[in-house]
Design brief:
By secondary structure, the chain is an alpha+beta fold. It has helices at about 1-40, 50-60; strands at about 65, 70-75, 80, 100, 115-135, 140-150, 160-165, 170, 180-190, 200-210. Strands 1, 2, 3, 4, 5, 6, 7, 8, 9 and 10 form a ten-stranded antiparallel sheet that branches.
Length: about 210
């Protein structure tokens, strides 16, 4: 009777050990699964940050070319009083091979006939301008201003950038981005030309900013 009792006791001990091991394994597996799930839940929370960052960057960097709605010759008395009005649109057609020309004058300061001449660009709505580029005649000597405002009147168009003794490709940049509907390219002094008179040519005007 004694050996049979010992064998039964040993079998019970093995079963108990097996149950204990299985219980431990399940508990450990459950904890590991719990940590993995918590980790997985943590991952999605990291994704929205780059998406928000890209959105902010995209909205902040909206600077690019601005297309004028129209260009008109402009004189001291306003639109329609400038030089060669029929050529004004050639200054904004994207070509450097043709452009708008002023009338010719006997002196660089218009022979005392007027205070200046220029081109008025109507942007169609207020835009923010950060820079302007244009191609002038090859002869140096021009004095030119970029003036901006919301009404097409010389007194209301304020200078924001200027250059003297200008020629060829000219870039002008206001000290600060400026918002306006109208942009006036205004000459107060003309360069000499090959005929011994004074005349300016403007082509391939490019405005940079945001609308």
């Amino acid at each position: 009777g004694q050996p049979r009792h010992n064998w039964t006791f040993l079998l019970a001990a093995v079963l108990l050990a097996s149950v204990a091991f299985l219980s431990y394994h399940l508990a450990t597996s459950g904890n590991t699964s719990g940590r993995s799930t918590a980790s997985d839940r943590g991952k999605p929370s990291a994704h929205p940050t780059p998406a928000v960052s890209r959105s902010i960057t995209s909205s902040a960097s909206g600077t690019g070319p601005l297309v004028p709605a129209s260009a008109a010759a402009f004189g001291p008395d306003g639109v329609g009083q400038g030089d060669n009005p029929g050529l004004a649109s050639l200054a904004i057609d994207g070509s450097a091979s043709d452009g708008w020309q002023t009338d010719w004058y006997a002196t660089a300061t218009f022979a005392g006939l007027e205070s200046g001449t220029g081109l008025l660009l109507d942007m169609g709505k207020p835009v923010t301008i950060t820079s302007a580029q244009m191609t002038l005649a090859t002869y140096p000597g021009a004095s030119v201003q970029i003036r901006v405002g919301n009404t097409p009147e010389l007194a209301d168009l304020q200078p924001v950038a200027q250059a003297t003794d200008a020629s060829g490709t000219l870039s002008l940049q206001p000290a600060n981005p400026t918002t306006a509907r109208y942009v006036l390219i205004w000459f107060t002094r003309l360069p000499p030309d090959s005929a011994g008179t004074y005349q300016e040519t403007v082509s391939d005007i490019k405005l940079i900013g945001s609308s």
